[in-house]
Amino acid sequence: MTDAGTDTRTDDRAVDRAADNADDVEARTRIHLQRSLRIATLIVAIAIVCGLGLLNLLRQQDTHDNFVVQVIAFALLAGILGMTTLLVVLRLQWGRWRRAAIAVVFLAVALSYLTLPDGKTSTTTDWIFGAANWVGVVVLFDRPFRTTASFLVAHELFALGNLVLFHEVDRASLARFATGTVSVLGFPLCVAVAAAVLAWLGREAAAATRELERVRTAEAVAAATHRRRTQRFAELSDTAVPLLEGLADGTLAPTDPVVRRRCSIEAARMRRLFAETDSVENPLLHELRHCADIADRKGVEVELDARGQWPQLPVAVRRDLTDAALTALATATSWARVTLVGSVDLVSVSVVADCGESGVLAPATPEVRIETFGSGGTIWTEAQWQPMAS
Amino acid sequence: MAAHGELITAVIVDDHAAIAAGVRYWCDQAVPPISLIDAGDRLAGVWTGPGADADVVIFDLELVPRNPDFGELRRLVDSGRRVIVYSQHSENATAIKCIDLGALAYLTKREGPDHLVPAIRAAAQGLPYTGPSLSGALAADDAPDRPRLSPRETEVLRAWFASSSKELVAAKLHITVKTVDTHIARVRVKYANAGRPARTKSELVTRALDDGVITLAELNDVAL
What we know:
The complex is a heterodimer.
Chain A: H1 2-59, H2 67-89, H3 98-114, H4 132-139, H5 145-166, H6 171-237, H7 240-249, H8 257-276, H9 283-297, E1 301-308, H10 315-331, E2 335-343, E3 346-353, E4 368-375, E5 378-385
Chain B: E1 9-13, H1 17-29, E2 35-38, H2 44-47, E3 56-59, H3 70-78, E4 82-87, H4 92-101, E5 105-108, H5 113-124, H6 132-139, H7 151-163, H8 166-173, H9 177-192, H10 199-211, H11 216-222
Transmembrane segments (chain A): 37-55, 67-90, 97-116, 148-165, 177-201
Keywords (chain A): Membrane, Transmembrane, Transmembrane helix
Protein name (chain A): Signal transduction histidine kinase
């Protein structure tokens, strides 16, 4: 059924729109939650690097063999944090520079480790062990949990590698490393887990909103469709239903030319009814085309020509204008010319066809006038709309 | 130019061979027949050779699709040629522009020999021909500088467009076919008297004044 098809399409579009809205909600919720947590993480990172890290670096200035290199390592980390702060303020992400930033972090760690005095791993002298991890977490904030976790593990392995390769591995150094790991790996990992959970919660909340929205829209669409169908059925019941009933109970014979004529007209009327709900730029012309199509399918040669511009007319007026054309087209034998001339204050629909004289229904709206003129087997019906003089 | 009774010659410029062949068939079948020269899609065929002396030019406005060649139409009219524009399209604005440029007829390709043959005969005598399609365009013309038409003239234009039969128009409006023609002719005179000057147009106005189709006072009245 054309009818059901049209309705379903409309429904789908409405539901799609609702989903789009929900997507907006989801995106907004997620962005808001993530931004808050990103700022919090950044503050923690700055406090640890520039507070604790810098304090340890300055206090242990004398124990360092090459203090300048340590300062350079610190400057690299501070630079990355500065850039991240700028990005947070501008609401931007690291994007394709992320890899470079992580590389700079590891470069700083490497510089620091290479100049670390013997036996000082995981002590307050090894200030970068507990600082670089936070910088990495901040840079990788919007990446999936596994990326952050991989970074933290890599950072751990770096520190372990440094211990094993360049320093003396003994009970004390291993114990320091193990204790350090608890905070160096554990705390940032907690933050990453929190971020992942928040993102999941945001997605879930948005999905719930979207589902609710979708159900509500579907309900509204169903109600509107039902109303439309009831109304259409009421419109058809006056003319089409008695015809169908007559055919069903055998009181009307399909072989009777009068019955066939009535069937043609009702079929055209239904086509027009379905066309009325299509959303098109020019409904009057659209409906006329549907009427013309009925005749065209019967093998009637139809010419349809429209000139001028006309205002948007209400459905009742359009029906009055197309009714005569519809009847003539549905009963034309071999040819029909349908024309439409419009202006702001006059719209005229004419059909000239070789159809039998037919009793055209009186127009329902006072602004429409219908004239029928017949000459030698040709019937010319003209319906004119003129707005009432105000 | 062909005097009364002499064989009318027309030249057609159209890139579709089938159209030219169809028009040739209609011209051969016409009584009396019309001699047709086929220039193909070459505009040069209208200016040189046998085409240069043809009484009427049947001109396909869109030799290049979607690019109506108003410039060539203007050149043809300016050099005194009597042009029938034969177009695939039926946009109001295009039809009216062709008339304003001085074409004697504007026919769409849906309008067959019933309109093309009379149009060629009329054009050969320097007279306009208004087919149903152009009639609809004139009836629906709402340009601010359009000439003022009487309600009856508009009604006739609309009816001619709707029915495509002057007999039906006459019977419906309770007038004679001759009166139908007079109304349409008056509309064309009003349009010829407006807009861009062209020789075909001024000839048309002069002749209408001579024949009493319209008076000078009426013409001055419609020119806004």
